[in-house]
Structures are given as structure tokens and as C-alpha cells.
Amino acid sequence: MGVKVCKFGGTSMADAAAIENVAKIILSDNSRRYVVVSAPGKRNKEDIKITDLLYECNREAVENGDCSKSFSKIKTRYIEIANDLKSDVDIESILEETEKEINRLKSSDFAASRGEYLNAIIMAAKLNFKFIDTAEIILFDQNGNFDSESTNALVGEKLKSSDYAVLPGFYGKDRNGNIKTFSRGGSDITGAIIARAVNAELYENWTDVSGFLACDPRIVENPRQIAVLSYKELRELSYMGASVLHSESIFPVRKGKIPINIKNTFKPEEKGTMILPSEMYHKSGNVVTGIAGKKDFTVINIEKSLMNNELGFARRVLSVLEQYNISFEHMPSGIDTLSLVIETATLQNGMLETILEGIKKEVSPTYLYVTENIALIATVGHGMTSSVGTAGKLFSALASENINVKLIDQGSSELNIIVGVDNSDYEKCVRAIYKAFK
Amino acid sequence: MGVKVCKFGGTSMADAAAIENVAKIILSDNSRRYVVVSAPGKRNKEDIKITDLLYECNREAVENGDCSKSFSKIKTRYIEIANDLKSDVDIESILEETEKEINRLKSSDFAASRGEYLNAIIMAAKLNFKFIDTAEIILFDQNGNFDSESTNALVGEKLKSSDYAVLPGFYGKDRNGNIKTFSRGGSDITGAIIARAVNAELYENWTDVSGFLACDPRIVENPRQIAVLSYKELRELSYMGASVLHSESIFPVRKGKIPINIKNTFKPEEKGTMILPSEMYHKSGNVVTGIAGKKDFTVINIEKSLMNNELGFARRVLSVLEQYNISFEHMPSGIDTLSLVIETATLQNGMLETILEGIKKEVSPTYLYVTENIALIATVGHGMTSSVGTAGKLFSALASENINVKLIDQGSSELNIIVGVDNSDYEKCVRAIYKAFK
Fold it and tell me: Are the beta carbons of B223 and B438 closer than 8 angstroms?
């Protein structure tokens, strides 16, 4: 029988009732052997996530050496959960120890990791599974980057001796023995790492929605749900803002060619979204699988006569960005023109001016000007661009809504067309594309 | 009264009758003070251009030290022209001297330049204008690049003392005193240089067509003629293959903000195409000014997970191209994908393989593959991309013709949309776009 690795998100683990529900799901299928949990999320709109409270604790520890103000709220939540679950975990002692360590270490990563840590201990007891701390098996290298191959070997080895286990998501340990977290939402990555290491037949990622939607439901009412996605489509949609799954969680499972099933903890009977490696993937009926986008890009426009004859022109422009550690998203070009599309957030505090100065020095452009407040929208679907008429449909839809297309980029991926529009046209643009390909 | 600089192309100067006609045009307007001439072109389809014969002469001179075989044909043409014009130029002596020099110098640039040289002498005598050899006034620097500012000063100075002059196009002199030519069609550049230096009110470029057509007449029957073009539109159309005017001739006149008028020597009453600096340019009725394109590009497609997180990824890819002196035309990108669009002609003799090897070493891509036989088509028009619906119309037109769009690039120029299609779809694509915007 194949092994399933299940990851449960914060809303699925927000209180005792939710945890009871999760336990029922896990125990209903005994191939669900490895469980990765997030920290308790929000129980209602006004609630604060445990992880946010923990970051606050660390700030207090750094400033006053005492995090008790925020930690008291954390204590209350966990004690309530443990009591409601009639847990035999000595949660109060563990909490006391945790508070001391937060005050002592003053490490943001350590503090943040404790939400998952505590939740995993409670969950392991509830399920009568073994608790295995991911600090012992998920490794980061000397540069603070996740060390995928060492981790894979170590996790595989360690889990051999445990048929059933609960593991905290979100963190591991670096070479100096310090706790190090992934970026926010990183429990998705932990689950994917475990799934790869145990060569799971399926990685179930349980959350509070029934999978991926074809576009943002805050923009389009009741968008179509996506039944099947390829890894690549997922990667493109995630990168461009679809936020069900952490965009980096794809890499471990891709290496192991393991399907991911996004499931709804509160509607476990629904099929959710299945994410498949290309070997298993067959294109479904829709030309466009999904639409995702992000606002707030800045476009630096460079014009120079005979630019194309100047060998290394673009390379020199890009070297300026690199010098200041700035990434670019796209580089559309015309004759004698080159545009750099950059996340506006990375150009704050005079960085834009510094970059412009650098470009002036490096390539002496004839004109150099900036367009701000650009939103990028990716329309994604396998074989989409090789399907005749996709671009026509897309741009006709934008035209009929009077949307001015600022830039277009369609490269080799045959998987997406990216358009740039004014921030103010973003929602209208997503709606128009969705409607055109419904 | 303003000064006009006139350049006459090869077909306009192909024989005595044509030259008589040109003389009439020049003398009909006494503001036509500086005349730049090409070498005699073809008199009929089977004819050989003088310049081609001169390159052949140089080959003979290099191989046998004697170019008389091909030079005899040149002699016949010029003697015929001089006789028919009843010219008092001692053309036979000049030809004899020229033949000796070709044999002695064995310089391809020198040989090629003699067509314009001889024609200018004959034309100056015909008009009773002064002959001024451009070898004395158009300068190239130590790297063989045109030295625009030194030339501009020198031409301005030298022409002050000549109210009326004929100058040979196509060439100048380098720092070592050797004749150096521009690329083929370079008499257009000479004319533009003279126009700038004398601060002409107009640069008339006389050729055998009545100006620019909205697209290639070999593809679309009787395409619309373009009445007014901006410098920028001209540059984009020329770069992408519209061949009425040498693409580099724009730079000198742009500096001087001098309008260019493309005129037909054989229909001098027609208005031709007026090319204006942006200060003088007002958009006419057509959204799309023109369509131009080129076949035979190769696309190198690079895929790598998390490429966008890898600072300097694109810069390193481009450094490989630079190392081998290869220019790229466009670099469309998706998420985790990057494509390089390169002229196929520059990737011959194993260069493609060398580049692929270099990219592999430099950035270790996950996938690396090549798409060949791609044609690029630029649809050009001022303000086109800010005109709502242009992209929709364009791509709908391609869809209705079942054309598969391989890549799209629309950057900041607001002046063009570039699409990539299979070579085999090239003509169909141009026709479809022309029809859509007729």
C-alpha cells in the first residue's frame, strides 16, 4: 500500500473542534502515515494567527527581554486546545519552557517556529502517532539555503523506523544548530519534502478551500474550480499570485514525481484539485487553466539608437540590476528599446534613482523613463499558446473592456501569455480574461 | 532660402536617359544644392549593378593582379553613359587610372567605391556643379566606425565654399587614408550626413518607388502607400526589413531634425513619403503605419526552476552570447523560462552548439531546447499600443487565418507589437495583419 503524506494548514488546526475533524480525516485512511501541521490560524476574521503572535513575542523579547505580554495569549490558546481535546500532553510545562527559550534566544525564526512545534506535539498525542521534530531532519546549509539532498537522505532514514508520525511544518535547523524557517506558508514545503523522502504515492495538502480556482474569487464571483493542474501550470499560477500553495513546495515533489491533492478540511468529500507531474497529466477541456496576477510593478524604459548593434547592451543593463541585488521579471524589447519590469517593492528608498543613475552611466541611453503602477496578469494553460486563437480571444476581450495593454510577453513556455496593464485596470482585466475563456 | 540635399539611387542613375531625367529634377529647383549619387544600378532585370561588377574586379585583382575581365564591362557602361550625355569628362583616362588602382590596392572597399566616384564626376560635369570627393570629408575612426562629429564639422566647413556640388555616396576615408565604405545601400547614409552638416531644410531621397508602402508588395498586392512616417516608425520598419532607405541613414538627420522625403525619380510629381522628426509629426488616420518582417530566426529556450530567484541569471546567459559575439533580437520570458531570439545566419558552422554548450555550463538549465525557422513580424504605428483594441484586432486576424503565434513581444516603445510565427506562416501573417488594419 502506498504512503500518503498529509499537510494541514492553519485554519484546519485553529481550535480543538478543527483538530478533532482533522484527526478523523487522518484516521479514516491508514495510508495517511505522515502528517505535517501548521500553527493554529485564525478562528474568525478578527483573530490573530499564532505565528503573528510569536513574531510579536520575539519583538518583546528583543526589546524588553520579556515576551510575556504576547505569550500569555498564546498560552491561553494552546491550553484551551489541549483542554478541549482532553489531551494528556503536559502543555503548560512545554509552554513555560518555550517562553523561556524565546526570551533567551531572541531569534525571530526560533520564536516563529514554535506554533508548529506545539501544534505537532498536541496532534501526535491526539493521534497516538510519534512526534518527530523537523529541526532534527530538515537541514539548511551554511548560506541559509535549504539543503535538499542531505535533507532527503536524512528524512528517508529517520522515518524508516516510524510508520506513523506527526511533524511540525515551516522550519529546520542550520549548520550552527539554530532553528531556521522557510518563508511564510512554508509548511507546504515541509510536507513536500517529507512526501519526496518517503516516496509517497500522494501528497495531500489540506486547507480551507476546495482547491485552486481559475481566478481570484475576490475579483470574479464563484470562479470555476480547477480539477487538474500540471506542476508547471501550478508554478506559474503560484508565482503570479495564486496563493493556495507555497510556490516553492513544487520542487521536492517534482523531483519525486509525486501528485499533490489540494483538499478542503471542511469538505473532505470534495475531490479538490489534483496537481500532476507532466508524465501523468492530460490536458482537460479548458484552453485556459487559470489566471493569476500581481499589482505594483515598475517599468524602466531604455531607448538608444542602434542598441541592437551594441554587443552586450542588455547584459550591461542587467549587470546594473545585479550590482544592487535587484531582480527583474521581464525584459520586453523593441527596435532600439528595452524595458525592465521590476517589482516596485524592491525599488524603495531611492533604489529606483540609484538604478537609473547606474544605467545612465553604464549604457548612456538616449531616453530613460519610468512607468509606474503596472499590474501583470498571467493567463496560464498547457498548450495554450499553440492553440490557435488564444491570443486573439484574449486581446479582443481586453479591447472590448477598453483596457490599454502596456506590455505583452509570450515566450517559449507555450503555457502562458503575460500582459501588463495599469494597476487600476487589474481587476477589470482579470474579469475580462476569465469571461472570455469561461 | 533653405537648402535641399538630394540623393539619387542606382536605378535613377542607371543610364544616360535616367541621368538626364535626374539633372532636370535637380535643375528645376535651385534649392537642390547638394547632390549625392549612387553607382549605376540595373537597367533591366538581367543587368548587373556596377557595384557588383566592382566587387568582382577586386576578386580578379586579388587572384590574378588583373581585373580587366570585369572592368571591361564597367568601362563599356561608363563610356556609353558619357557619350550619350555628350559629356566633356575625359572618362577613358579616369577609367584607366581607376583600373590601375584597383589592381594595385586590392581593396574591396576601394574597388566598390569607384561606382559612385565615377558617377559623381559625370553628374557634376552634366550639372556644372563642383565635384567634391567624400573621401576628403567623411571620416572613419581607428576602429573603422563612422566618426560622426568630426565628419559633421569637416563637411560643414568644406561645403561652405561650394554653393552647388555633387558628391559620391557610400564611402569615406579611414585614419590610414584608405577608402572605407558603409554597408550596401550606404549612399543613403552619405546623403543624410551631408544634410545634417549643411543644416538642410529637407533631405530628398530619390529612388525608383514612390515612397514607403504599408507592407511588402511581393506579399500584398498594391499595398497602401505611407504618406507620413516618423523617424521612429521608419527605424522600426527599416530594421525589420522594409528596404527603401538604409536603416542607419536616420541617425544623422535625426540629430539635425531634418525631414526626409522619399521621392520617385520616374514620377517626380508624386508626393512620396515624408519622414518627420517627432516634433513635426502628427499622427495620421491609420492606427498601423506599416508592417515589416524577417524570416529565419532561431529561438533558444531555457527553462530552470526558480530562475527568477537566481540573481544575475539572464545576465549570465547574455554573457555567453557576448563571449561569442552573437547579438540577440528579443528575450521574452515566462516564469522559470527565458527565450533568446537570434538571427539564424549568425549561428552557422557550429555556433549554435557552442552557444548551447556555453549556456549549459553557465547556468545549468533544467531544459534547453531550440526552435528554428521562426519569422518575426513587426506591426508599427505611433501610439498603436495605447490605442485600445489594436492587439485584439491583430491577434484575432491571426487566429482567423489559423496562424499559431509562437512568441509575442510588446515593450515600452508604444510603437510596435512583434510576433513570432513559423517561417511558413510569414506571408500569411503579413497579409492577415495588413487586411485587419487596411
Answer: no
The span from the CA of A394 to the CA of A371, in Å, is: 23
Query: Which residues, other chains included, contact B380 with Cβ-Cβ below 8 Å and sequence gap of 6+?
Result: B233, B236, B237, B240, B288, B289, B290, B291, B292, B415, B416
In three-state secondary structure terms, B233 is helix
* B322, B404, B409 member nearest A312 (Cβ): B322
Residues with Cβ within 8 Å of B230's Cβ and at least 6 positions away in sequence, in order, are B275, B276, B277, B278, B281, B382
* Residues near A184 by beta carbon (within 8 Å), at least 6 away in sequence: A51
A196 near A125, Cβ under 8 Å? no
From chain B, the residues in CB contact with A406 under 8 A are: 385
Interface test with B, best of A255, A303, A321, A412 (most B CBs within 10 A): A412
How far apart (Å, rounded) are the C-alpha atoms in residues A212 and A228? Answer: 9
Helix, strand and coil content of chain A, in percent to the nearest 5, comes to 40, 20, 35
Of A391, A406, A413, the CB nearest to B408: A391
C-alpha cell at B63: 587572384
Residue A380 C-alpha, separation from nearest chain B C-alpha, in angstroms: 10
DSSP, collapsed to helix, strand or coil, labels residue A357 as: helix
Is the Cβ–Cβ distance between B87 and B122 less than 8 Å?
Answer: yes
Residue type, B326: I
Residue identified by cell 507546504 is A188
Copy the grid coordinates of residue B20: 538626364
3 state SS of B64: helix
Burial class (CB in 10 A: 0-12, 13-18, 19+), A106: middle
Asked if B308 contacts B346 with a C-beta cutoff of 8 angstroms, the reply is no
Give the contacts of B72 (CB within 8 A, at least 6 positions apart).
none
Contact B334 A305 (CB under 8 A): no
Pairwise CB contact (< 8 Å): A315 & B315: yes
C-alpha cell at B46: 538581367
Cross-chain Cβ contact B399/A392 below 8 Å: yes
From residue A318, how far is each of A3, A362, B312, B339 by CA, in Å? 46, 10, 7, 16
What are the grid coordinates assigned to A55, written together? 513574531
Crossing angle for the helix pair A68-84 and A16-27, to the nearest 10 degrees: 50
How many C-beta atoms surround the C-beta of residue A107 within 10 A? 18
Contact A403 B388 (CB under 8 A): yes
Contact assessment for residue A148 and residue A156, using Cβ atoms and an 8 Å cutoff: no
Question: pLDDT tens digits, chain A, 438 residues: what are they?
Answer: 699 999 999 999 999 999 999 999 999 999 999 999 999 999 999 999 999 999 999 999 999 999 999 999 999 999 999 999 999 999 999 999 999 999 999 999 999 999 999 999 999 999 999 999 999 999 999 888 999 999 999 999 999 999 999 999 999 999 999 999 999 999 999 999 999 999 999 999 999 888 899 999 999 999 999 999 998 888 888 888 777 888 788 889 988 999 999 999 999 999 999 999 877 887 767 789 999 999 999 999 999 887 877 888 999 999 999 999 999 988 888 778 889 999 999 999 999 999 999 999 999 999 999 999 999 999 999 877 777 788 888 988 998 898 988 888 887 667 889 999 999 999 999 999 999 998
A394 and B395: CB-CB below 8 Å?
yes
Q: Which three cell numbers stand for residue A253?
A: 515533489
The upper half-sphere exposure of residue B334, i.e. CA atoms within 13 Å in the direction of its Cβ, equals: 29
Contact between A366 and B250 (Cβ < 8 Å): no
CA A12 vs CA A8, A79, A189, B105: distances in Å: 6, 18, 17, 86
Which of A162, A156, A16 lies closest to A77, judged by CA?
A: A16
Q: How far is CA B345 from the centre of its chain?
A: 18
How far is Cα A215 from Cα A202, in angstroms, rounded to an integer? Answer: 25
